[in-house]
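mind reviewing these tokens:
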Amino acid sequence: MNKSGIKKETFGAPKQILLNPDLQFSVGIVVSNAKFVEEGGKKLVKAGTPMVGNLDARTTAFTVVGSSDANKVQGILLHDVDVTDGNANGTLLIMGFVNTNRIDATTKALIVEGVKTTIPMVKFIAG
């Protein structure tokens, strides 16, 4: 019996949104489960999602950008994050090149001009 609360799951390779994985800098964050997409019975925050939070307090959950806070975005979520069981760990891209062809249409719609100007070290390129 597993009393530690640890559960084992098997995954494939994570979705890669970077144009060049070598030219990037990212940090670990906690991702809020307040806004998500349901897919395959799981609640996901998708790779490419602009995230709002505090880089000096990364253990406080980052949230998905809203229509009024594009100027508060700190970076782009690097991989899909499963928030089915609550807030979860994720990776925030704060410098690099994002291949917009690898982001789904709903997530891509969140990357408005205000988001792009707020995080100038992240470039969005159709690769």
Q: What stands out?
A: Residues 66 and 110 are 8 Å apart (CA to CA). The longest helix spans residues 113-118. Helices lie at 105-108, 113-118.
